Amino acid sequence: MAARLEVRAGTAYPVEVGFGLDVGELAAAVLEPGECALLTDSTVGPLYAEKVRRSLRGVGWRLLETVEVPAGEGSKSLAVYGDVLRRLARAGLMRDGVLFALGGGVVGDLGGFVAASYMRGIPLVMLPTTLLAMVDSSVGGKAGLDLPEGKNLVGAFLQPRIVIAELGFLESLSGRELSRGLAEVVKMGLLAGGEFFGALERVGAALRREAAALEELVLRSVSFKAAVVAEDERERGRRAILNYGHTVGHGLEAASGYALAHGEAVAVGMVAEALLARRVLGSELVGLHERLLREARLPVRAPGLDAHRVLGAMGRDKKRRGGAHRFVLLEGVGRPVWGVEVGEEEARRAVEAVLG
Ligand SMILES: NC(=O)c1ccc[n+]([C@@H]2O[C@H](COP(=O)([O-])OP(=O)(O)OC[C@H]3O[C@@H](n4cnc5c(N)ncnc54)[C@H](O)[C@@H]3O)[C@@H](O)[C@H]2O)c1
Ligand SMILES: [Zn+2]
């Protein structure tokens, strides 16, 4: 079982999705096998790095170095970034050397920024190992790091040369991490409408790791994200719809001191934004959101957080412009509108409603 999609952003590149993929061979179809390095983290490395190394060597890739960074968001830092660059330099990786990023969104974002900047840019191959990375972060070319002052404040756009989503990697992923990835899947299904929205009924089966359900939801998510990105690579317009649930979500994440995980914050954020859409656009989607998110074992409320802090953090969000908050709202399933300005009072009510 395997399928290939194409992302038409920058130079078009393939996304391979399936079980039992041969990483070395698939990469060799788009890049001449030569010198390369493998970036991974301390959880994924021990599980899968050796398998990937074997596959790479099998078709003539010469692996100069494996760099394993500590698992977790903390590795999206200037300090770790600097260490990785120096390891590559000491290993003698040259301008034509390829970086393979094996891990979740953290390794992907860090690896993307390394590949964008090392020797002014080297080719990148994404090997996502979390559901979130497969459906979201590995596709679209956003790479970046956090600063102590805020998340994702440093970054670059670099499209990978190929994304290889080996669904077998998800076997070792915890149920919680799977749910967090499903938050982005539910988000995209609601934005897309049509058959993708219908396929959200397989969320429960995906959580039980049924192969066909996982494959369908990953393929639909990637193809939806790819289409949006191809239309608007630099987020000057429609790409903003991918931030659905994220305006409130980012506020919740920050106000919790990042105790609330991104996927969970986005889930609750979508409920808040569905409440907003009910007031501002008259759409009745709150119950639908709650049902889908519960099926994905995601929260629909974030009790205990302070509304004032959430709104404060939303105000500091880098995506905010001008005075009012701007939201992506759903007029209906498959009918997002973006850049909807909502006053402070209206936003506060929606936030308070999901904190209770
Ligand atoms: N670039 C983008 O467009 C984009 C989009 C969304 C999110 N992101 C970024 O992605 C990051 C979050 O990604 P994530 O949720 O994948 O987090 P992550 O990379 O931290 O992975 C979550 C945890 O799962 C572990 N793990 C990964 N794969 C595993 C596997 N197969 N088996 C067992 N354990 C495994 C990791 O070691 C980690 O501890 C954030 O930094 C976020 O900003 C980027
Ligand atoms: Zn997200």
Question: What can you see in these coordinates?
Answer:
With 356 residues, the chain is an alpha/beta fold. The protein folds into two domains: 2-173, Rossmann fold, CATH 3.40.50; 176-355, Dehydroquinate synthase-like - alpha domain (Dehydroquinate synthase-like, alpha domain). The protein is built from 14 helices and eleven strands. It has helices at residues 23-28, 44-58, 78-91, 105-117, 131-137, 175-192, 194-199, 203-207, 211-231, 246-255, 262-280, 286-295, 307-316, 344-355; strands at residues 2-7, 13-18, 35-41, 62-69, 98-103, 124-128, 142-147, 150-157, 162-166, 325-332, 335-342. The chain has a seven-stranded mixed beta sheet with strand order 1-2-9-6-5-3-4, with helices on both faces. The protein has a two-stranded antiparallel ribbon with strand order 7-8. It has a two-stranded antiparallel ribbon with strand order 10-11. Helix 6 packs parallel to helix 11 (262-280), helix 10 packs across helix 13 and helix 13 crosses helix 14 (344-355). The radius of gyration is 20 Å and the shape is globular. The site of zinc ion has 4 residues, from helix 11. Zinc ion (ZN) binds next to helix 11.
Derived structural class: alpha/beta
Bound molecules: nicotinamide-adenine-dinucleotide, zinc ion
Arrangement of strands in the largest sheet: 1-2-9-6-5-3-4
- Poorly predicted runs of 5 or more residues: none
Number of helices: 14
Let me know the average pLDDT.
95
Q: How many domains, in number, for the residues?
A: 2
Can you tell me the overall shape? globular
CATH class identity of the largest domain: Mainly Alpha
Oligomer: single chain
Count of extended strands = 11
Q: What proportion of the residues is helical, as a percent range?
A: 40-55%
Topology pattern, helix = H, strand = E: EEHEHEHEHEHEEEHHHHHHHHEEH
Quickly give the CATH architecture of the largest domain: Up-down Bundle
Describe the sheet with the most strands: 7 strands, mixed
